Every structure is written in structure tokens, then in C-alpha cells.
Amino acid sequence: MKTRMMSILAVAGILSAAIGVAAKEAKSDGPDNTPKVARRTRARTQTKAKKFKNYLLEKYPEEMKEIEGEQKQLQEKRRTLFKKAMEEISDTDREKLGIDSRREAAAKHRAAAYAREKYPEELKGIKELWKSNKKEASEKMRDLLDKAAKEMPADWKPEKGVQKRWRKNKK
């Protein structure tokens, strides 16, 4: 059983190496290096990986279930370790690592929504400035968000549909 497990892991290693080679080929500076070609190559690679995984599931179902179970356990261990670290980490370390708590992230989103609603002209100016001077534009944006956070009433809520508009604008 261990030899079968080792052979499965060896084949999985070969597959991951093949995926890495395909990814490097997709990133090369050849004439076919366009986003469309890269997506197609990535899709083909993913399809091959799925086919191989399905083959392994058919050929070695017990071993694959065991491996997947181990992966789920490892993922759960990572989650609990992450939660533990988030509770113990100091504010200065959070700043250094660039980690926001959910409350902080929600407050930033609310401030951004408030700024979009109350200062649309300033945001347009920052957007134009972004094209020529990103550093200055990011400083102005930070100042505007700080200003919006200070002025925003505690009970303020964004108008309905703001989040949907953000998602549409991201595309």
C-alpha cells in the first residue's frame, strides 16, 4: 500500500512539474504570448490535471480519499493556526504585515462608499491624476478617505446597490 501511495505521489509530482513547464511556456515572450493564449494554455493544463486526478480516483480510490482527507486536515490546521496568530498578533505587527481585521476592512469600505457619494468630483480628479502620477494620487486618495472616515456619521449607510456598482466597475 505504501508503494502504491508513493507511486501516486510521484506521479502527482510529475504532473505538477508538467503544469509548471506549461505555465512557463505560457509566460514566455513568444509571439503567442497574449492573454487569450495564456488563458487557453492554462485551461488545457487544468483539464489535463482534472483528467489525471479522475484517473487516480478511479484507479486508487482508497488512497486518493486518504490523501484528500489529509489535505482537508492540513487546511483546517492552517485555519486554526491563522486564527490563533490573528488573536495574538500586535497592532504594530499587523501594520507591518498589512493585515486588516474584518472590522477595519469594513470601515475602510464604508469610508470609500461615503467618499464616492459625497466627493465624486474629487474622486474624478484623483482618477485623472492616477494616469500621470500614481504616488501623488494614492496620497490624495488616502487623505480623502481619512477625511471621509472622520466626517462620516456613525449611523450612515451606503445607498442600496453601491456594492453591485463596485463589482461592475472592477471588470
Short description:
The protein is an all-alpha fold and 171 residues long. It has helices at residues 2-27, 35-59, 61-88, 91-97, 102-118, 120-132, 134-151, 162-170.
Number of distinct beta strands? 0
Structural class: mainly alpha
Rg from alpha-carbon coordinates? 24 Å
Distance between the termini: 49 Å
**Percentage of residues in helical conformation:** over 70%
Beta-strand residue percentage: under 5%
Order of helices and strands: HHHHHHHH
Mean pLDDT: 78
What's the overall geometry? elongated
The tally of domains stands at 2
Total of helices: 8
Oligomeric state of shown chains: single chain
- Characterize the main sheet: none
* Unreliable stretches: none
Describe the protein's architecture and organization.
This protein has 2 domains: 2-88, no CATH class; 100-158, no CATH class. The chain is 84% helix and 0% strand. It has helices at residues 2-27, 35-59, 61-88, 91-97, 102-118, 120-132, 134-151, 162-170. The radius of gyration is 24 Å and the shape is elongated. 3% of the residues are buried. The model has no long low-confidence stretch (mean pLDDT 78).
List the helices and strands and how they pair.
Layout: H1 2-27, H2 35-59, H3 61-88, H4 91-97, H5 102-118, H6 120-132, H7 134-151, H8 162-170
